[in-house]
Amino acid sequence: MENSTQLRKWLDDMDLPHPLVIAGPCSAETEEQVLEIAHELKDTDVNYYRAGIWKPRTRPGNFEGVGAIGLKWLQKVKEETGLKTATEVANRAHVDLALEHDVDLLWIGARSTVSPFIVQEIADALEGTDKVVLIKNPVNPDLSLWLGAVERLHSANIGKLGVIHRGFSTYEKTKYRNIPEWQLAIELQTRFPDLPLINDPSHISGRRDLIFDVSQTALDLNFDGLMIETHCDPDNAWSDAAQQVTPARLVQIMNDLRIRKETDEEAEYNNKLSNLRAQIDVIDNQLIETLGKRMRISDEIGALKKQRNVAVLQTGRWNAILGNMILEGESKGLSEEFVLRMFKAIHQESINHQEKVINN
Description:
By secondary structure, this protein is α/β, with parallel strands linked by helices. It has two domains: 256 residues, Aldolase class I (TIM Barrel, Alpha-Beta Barrel), CATH 3.20.20.70; 89 residues, Chorismate Mutase Domain, subunit A. It is built from 14 helices and eight strands. It has an eight-stranded parallel barrel with strand order 1-2-3-4-5-6-7-8, surrounded by five helices. Helix 2 runs parallel beside helix 3. The chain starts with 8 loop residues before the first helix and ends with a helix.
């Protein structure tokens, strides 16, 4: 993307003393609900008040948003609290209505980002706008698709661009609603350091008790801001109740987060060190998750061997694995000694799992 250095200008011009904060309910439900939450957030660190007006759901029949009437409620939010407003758009009609009601920030959702046709339609509708436009990552971990959406908006002369990392769908059961796949966000950040990067811990977590930890990881990785779903009565929210926090809890989260600034050489050193350590933490968690998957497969192998009365140790197979991994390790800069120690430990744990299954 040419002139990418201009992408961060809109954020730098805000001269914020803290990361950008976008907060508000997952869905606008009633005028009273929208205004009540807004008034509770107006004297906090929140910079943009978000509310879902149109809610694309996976299956029909669920609450799909109040529609255009909710935009009038957002106008009242701005009039009564001074907060800038934000909502998701999924087609040209949404864009036209949002601009007509002077919404300040528009974002393209994960389900829309997967379709170049939808993204292009939105880009054409927004061409030349001075509104802030953010693009959520696609549902699946596809960095090229995500960047393709950014390029389409950038080609439409939209200068105030940024991206939102909201995690990725998976069939596997994890503690997250959407697995973070932090390495994709890190790669995007490395390739385009001038592209503002916002984290959405609500959609990654799916649970309000994980939001603080996800937010802290994002800040440790030098994300520029957070989008946190906030509701005055989360348990009774009409959508995504489990992942919303109260305004009071949002304030507490922002107070407890460790926010690092580059103010001098020592601070810059500490900031870079914390960022690198956060990247290591992400990879370490992935290693543990991968090893857990490997041992679950070992359990299945143990069950098969038990059925056929086959010995646990298969020397030929083990030697082939070891030889391949030594060569692969060398290509990645890992010493033979390290690879041997690591895979011997993994192999022993695998044997333990299989023996446990066979002897049970």
